[in-house]
Amino acid sequence: MAKKDFIAGHSIRLIHGGESYFNTLIELINECENTLHLQVYIFDLDNTGKIILKAIEDAAARGVSVYLVVDGFGSMSLGNEFADRMKMQNISFRFFSPLPFPGILQAGRRLHHKVCVADKKKSLVGGINIADKYRGSKNELPWLDYALLVEGNVSNEINDVCERIFNKKFTLNPVKSKQKFISQVKDGVKVRMTRNDWIRGRNEISSAYKTMLGNAHHEILIVASYFIPSRRLLKILVRAAIRGRKVNIVLGKISDVPFIKPATQYLYGKLLRNGVRIFEYKDAVLHAKVCVVDQQWVSIGSLNLNHLSELLSLEMNLEVLDKTFGASLSKEFHDLIQNHCVEVNVHAFEKERTIFLKFKSWFSYKLFSGFMRMLSFLSRKNPID
């Protein structure tokens, strides 16, 4: 697969999870004049979901062509009544790979995008689903996550991908669109959109991670949820630390999926003994998927560093090549580490590991990684959607 070039001339803004993200999403929807694509893994009809739903219904009412795709597993609670409601509101809607599955073959292939693109001009891409837990409340912090708001020509590519997914046209050829957005900005930030759809031959995000981490000269900063990387990526991280690169990984102290943390902890010993520093975010659930290399390359999006994202799900990230943005984000993550995280000490960690805990971690890791590999093998034989 040919390597994609970065496109210059963009304006970008880091968006934090919580109210900031949902206010930005609503503003993007409200400003839209012609075409709106929204694709998300989880769309709950709680208070947050109802607010976003009203915004897209209002957009359709004023004549915007609205296309909404949600995952058939992550958003299964919406049901057929929701689809009927969308039809009545003149919103083009569909479930990606809806339930019931034709057996276990499609159990792992999911639409994991969290993307909104308005008028092929502005896009919001990140790891944030539509539900109250991602927004937070007066009594509860939102899950830690990030997105990138970008304005510029890369939004044409994002729009084309959304069109293909909505129309089930998984071709490698670009969609022939009647009219593209042409940015008039000559300078600006370099951005590129990358995807993962391993079953259909797309491994752009995974390949970029391996290349950039392997070529790091000074520092690797990773903020990751559900962190169970492939053996190759694990080897790259360890090798970088051995070669003297500063490798800092921020993971969650609190997990919404209990068996994931012991599976991740199975890797702690090897990482820590080889000089990788691990920090656990303690304030809320960590759901972020961000990487910064040498304070100039940044990747933000939906891809988790595990087999599920690498081998099964449809993922979308945005990459930024910019020293100012990279340095700013690096500083923010170092502040996060200092003020909201606890460091995992290798000696204390290994001292606390009883035989039972070691077995639990080993079993969880083998179970998760083995199950994901099995699903990827089964799913690629008969990919749908």
Total beta-strand segments:
16
Distance separating the two termini? 22 Å
Radius of gyration from the alpha-carbon trace, in angstroms: 20 Å
Q: Total domains, how many?
A: 2
How many helices does DSSP assign? Answer: 13
State the helicity in percent bands: 25-40%
Strand and helix layout:
Elements (H helix, E strand, L loop, with lengths): L6 E10 L2 H13 L3 E6 L6 H15 L3 E7 L7 H10 L3 E5 L17 E5 L3 E5 L5 H4 L10 E6 L2 H14 L21 E9 L4 E2 H11 L4 E6 L6 H12 L3 E7 L7 H6 L2 H6 L3 E5 L7 E5 L3 E5 L5 H5 L3 E7 L1 H18 E3 L2 H7 L2 H25 L6
Helix pairs in contact: 1-2, 6-7
Could you explain how this protein is built, in words?
The structure is a single chain. The protein has 385 residues and is of the alpha+beta class. The protein folds into two domains: 9-185, Endonuclease, Chain A, CATH 3.30.870; 203-379, Endonuclease Chain A (Endonuclease, Chain A, 2-Layer Sandwich). Helix content is 38%, strand content 24%. Helix 6 (204-214) packs parallel to helix 7 (231-242).
Give a quick rundown of the structure.
The chain is built from 13 helices and 16 strands. It is α+β, with helices and mostly antiparallel strands and 385 residues long.
